[in-house]
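Render this sequence as a predicted structure.
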Amino acid sequence: MELNRLLTISAITIASLATINAQEVTKKSRVSLGGYGEIAYTRNFFSDHVSRYSQPEEHKDDPSHGRFDIPHAVIYLGYNFGKGWTFSTEIEFEHGGTGVAYEKEDEEGGEWEQETEKGGEVELEQFWIQKSFSRALNLRMGHIVVPVGLNNAHHEPLNFFTVYRPEGENTIMPSTWHQTGASLWGYIGKFKYEAQFLAGLNADHFTNTGWVNKGNSSPMEFEIANKYAVALRVDNYSIPGLRLGFSGYYGHSMGNSYPNNSKGVDATYSGKVVIGSFDFTYNAHNWLIRGQADYGYLGDAEQLKYLYNRLNNKSPYKHSAFVSKNAYAVGIEAGYDIFAHFTKLHKDEQKMYLFGRYEQYNPYASQTKGTAYNYTEIKRMAVGINYMPIKQIVIKGEYSHRFLRSVYNDEPSVSIGVAYQGWFL
């Protein structure tokens, strides 16, 4: 009898401890902590002189140059309040520094400028509160990622083979594209959707070499929202191993500046920005293949040069060069996991992808008022390896080559990188 009593007490004690542990785990699981980061080294076997495009013959034999970089170091932090309410934030440190930076503006004759970006080199890429009603309906409000294009929707370093983010989308669109607004998203059957309402892009930031790349940034302490925009993304997962994605953006960009000018070009024209994108990912049979095609249209492009803030030399905006009416970027990469044929390595979940990538892009795809910047038309190929000793870490190596028009010098380079991505809590 006494033995049975002791066994019963022990069982109750063990059950109580298990309940307490479960409660502790549940309590801890309300907090989520994670992030990703990249460390890179590159040796460029071409000139870095400011006139390498305007006087290519004089710089074809210039020495190579190298650089170390920390492109992105990101911290995720989230909290589950319960009853469907969650919070999440993403803080990104770009290039290992903070504050303002000096740079040479190639498009302005090599003039030294102090580049001011919102938050300097530290950016709050996400900061939102979400209410989840069901798997099919979630409302997200705050500073959110705009998932237009493959790069923005899947920008973490384990989602591309190259050491740096794919150049095409990274050139013509903001990357990572993040703005303040509201989003409805969810899963319906084999589909995932997301619809967003946002502030419009700022045409004062558009350039000939980057199209709308910097249009989401603001030198002010606030995000200017005189004009508005919408974005939509739909992904389909019907075929095992294959994801098909369609995304788009529409908004007005002229007049979305500070101060809000009531006269002139700013008030007369709208500067419509329209972007359409298709992308896919195939992951099966030891193959990992990704591809995308993006096309952009900018209305009233010939008028951007005459915007009030672009005419004012004291403003923190671009003051020269026309902007193209059209821009495009297409790219595809494929990698094969050779470790899949080695039983021990495969069981240990190690992977070694041999990959190749090809892309073509041009932020100045159409001439505005007869102007041409032919060095913006680029074809790029890359080959290399991705070694993943564990799921959260990748070591990358690649040889890449930019092919420019024959009048210019091609741009080969070698890059090595290491990156991580994962959740700590």
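Summary. Residues 1-26 have pLDDT under 50 and may be disordered. Helices lie at 2-28, 150-153, 167-172, 264-268, 308-311, 343-347.
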